[in-house]
TrEMBL record:
Entry protein name: Threonine synthase
Residues where N6-(pyridoxal phosphate)lysine is found: K142
Organism: Trichormus variabilis (strain ATCC 29413 / PCC 7937) (Anabaena variabilis)
Pfam families: PALP (PF00291)
SUPFAM superfamilies per the UniProt record, alphabetical: Tryptophan synthase beta subunit-like PLP-dependent enzymes (SSF53686)
Keyword Coiled coil (UniProt): no
UniProt EC number: 4.2.3.1
Transmembrane segments: none
Cofactor annotation: pyridoxal 5'-phosphate
Highest taxon listed in the record's lineage: Bacteria
Keywords: Lyase, Pyridoxal phosphate
Length: 454
């Protein structure tokens, strides 16, 4: 039986090191069909080789992948994409890999659901739900970024992969590493939900449960990455990893009939997902796959960890770190790496960034479940609650084509709604007992419908 290894944040780089774990070796992988050309600093524009590095050595800005858009424009068509696999790898030319030997576990191409009952409840006419609660293999959008990161890690010669995680990323890294035959060591805060701990342990990684919050976990992982030379998907592999989120933009554009929406509402943790959906839309416009239009970007945070929302409201171009205190642990990042870029996108597109409290998050989870039959985790509850808040404030036009992103499954965070969804009616195995209980339930239903009409 595998158990998490408890660590304090003061543990040195040698603690818990498994003897079988090895560093990367140099592996030539470049092929003629690759469209990525360099890593480029988002701040100063300095360019770097396509290696496992994520910070500019001149200005300490973050690095991202640069592509040859002229080559993409000449080679990619809608027809070629549609003829590709039913996964994120149909968009392979837009992803940072250099060979065809990718890790494809059926990730992506999740449903874009036209909402009727939730839309009617909110007074919206064209609401769509991008449902990554059913993404494979671990029921969250993190499967996208990890599939890309581990494909690139394997190209770079890594045999051990790792991550700092609030839960979903650990699940995904452990699962996809198991599929690919890579050694895996993942790091999580020790107070994580039980479902997410089990959701990693089942794949038999080395699981480090750190006594501290996510930001402390992340700092420890940066030290381990420097000491051991492992492939950390959201540290030294971050430029490649984050590109996987673009597929949430690509899929929505394709599923809307090769058109962009008018407004998107997405959760904000580090801010990376938000910025990469934006980049995905931009890239499709750049190569001529869709017509350009203004898409408003609105972000959702929990009040107990809302450094990006606070920066937006105070019109700041910097993030003030906070100590997380919310049930929405999967988006509880107190010092978000891409926060300033998320604020910039929301501002320049005419969007908004809002926060909601834990009670509103629970109501958001329940609202989505009872109107659309989708059980989301706390991040999705946050997003739905912010969507509702924006509608009530008149910040979403009822006739806009609006897409709300649901990024994880509620089975992972059942503790959040326990005690808020009622109890079963316990009856005897007799017809009259059933009839009495049925009448009781109908009376309760009538009282509820008097308050909320659908």
């Amino acid at each position: 039986m595998f158990l998490p290894v408890l660590l304090s944040t003061a543990v040195d780089g040698q603690t818990g090191k498994a003897s079988y774990m090895t560093q990367a070796t140099s592996t030539p992988t470049q092929t003629s069909n690759a469209t990525l050309s360099a890593l480029k600093c988002k701040e100063c524009g300095a360019e770097y080789e396509l290696k496992a590095t994520h910070v500019c050595e001149y200005c300490f800005g973050p690095l991202e992948v640069k592509y040859d858009y002229n080559a993409l424009r000449l080679s990619v068509t809608r027809e070629k994409i549609q003829a590709g696999p039913n996964s994120i790898w149909r968009y392979r030319p837009f992803l940072p890999v250099t060979t065809d030997n990718v890790i494809d576990v059926g990730t992506g191409m999740t449903p874009l659901v036209r909402s009727h009952r939730l839309a009617r409840r909110l007074g919206l006419n064209k609401l769509y739900i991008k449902n990554d609660a059913v993404n494979m293999p671990t029921l969250s959008f993190k499967d996208r970024v990890v599939s890309v990161a581990l494909s690139r890690a394997r190209e770079l010669g890594f045999t051990t992969v790792s991550c700092a995680s609030t839960g979903n990323l650990a699940n995904s890294t452990a699962a996809i590493a198991a599929h690919a035959g890579l050694d895996c060591c993942v790091f999580i805060p020790a107070d994580l939900e039980a479902g997410k701990i089990l959701g990693s342990l089942i794949y038999s990684p080395t699981l480090m449960a750190v006594k501290g919050n996510y930001d402390q976990v992340n700092r420890l992982c940066s030290e381990v990455a420097n000491t051991h030379g492992w492939g950390f998907v959201n540290i030294n592999l971050r430029p490649y990893y984050s590109e996987g989120s673009k597929t949430l933009g690509f899929e929505v554009a394709e599923q809307l009939g090769w058109e962009l929406p008018d407004h998107v509402v997405a959760p904000l943790a580090s801010g990376s997902l938000f910025t990469k959906i934006y980049k995905g839309f931009q890239e499709f416009v750049e190569v001529g796959l869709v017509e350009g239009k203004k898409v408003r970007f609105s972000g959702a945070q929990a009040e107990g960890c809302s450094p990006i929302a606070q920066a937006f409201k105070e019109d700041r171009d910097f993030i003030k770190p906070v100590k997380p205190n919310t049930i929405a642990k999967s988006i509880a990042i107190g010092n978000p790496a891409d926060g300033v870029y998320a604020v910039d996108i929301a501002k320049k597109t005419g969007g908004n960034i809002e926060s909601v409290n834990d009670a509103e998050i629970i109501e958001g989870i329940k609202l989505l479940a009872e109107t659309e039959g989708i059980f989301t985790e706390t991040a999705g509850g946050t997003t739905v609650a912010v969507l509702k808040k924006l509608v009530e404030a008149g910040k979403i036009d009822p006739d806009e084509t609006t897409v709300v992103y649901i990024t994880g499954n509620g089975l992972k965070t059942q503790e959040a709604v326990q005690g808020y969804v009622g109890e079963p009616l316990t009856i005897d195995a007799k017809l009259d007992s059933f009839e009495r209980a049925l009448e009781r339930s109908r009376t309760l239903d009538r009282l509820e419908w008097q308050q909320v009409l659908v």
